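User: Hello, beginner here. Can you help me understand these amino acid letters and fold codes? It all follows right here:
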Amino acid sequence: MTHKAYFLVSGVIFSAVALVHALRVALKWEAVIGGWEFPIWLSVAGLIVAAYLAYSAFRLGWSRDGRGT
């Protein structure tokens, strides 16, 4: 797999994760694992991190040679 393809696939995956976090925040979905309910602010933080990682991956994937240069 080339660097460009790797970064573009990573960008798509992180975009999907960010979308799920955004939907959870917007629709106020509950998330319970092992009896512990995850607070909404945790999804806000997850949204910010996933969106930044998606942006970075797409930026690197669309760069001239796929290596960020």
Q: What stands out?
A: The chain has a mean pLDDT of 91. The radius of gyration is 15 Å.
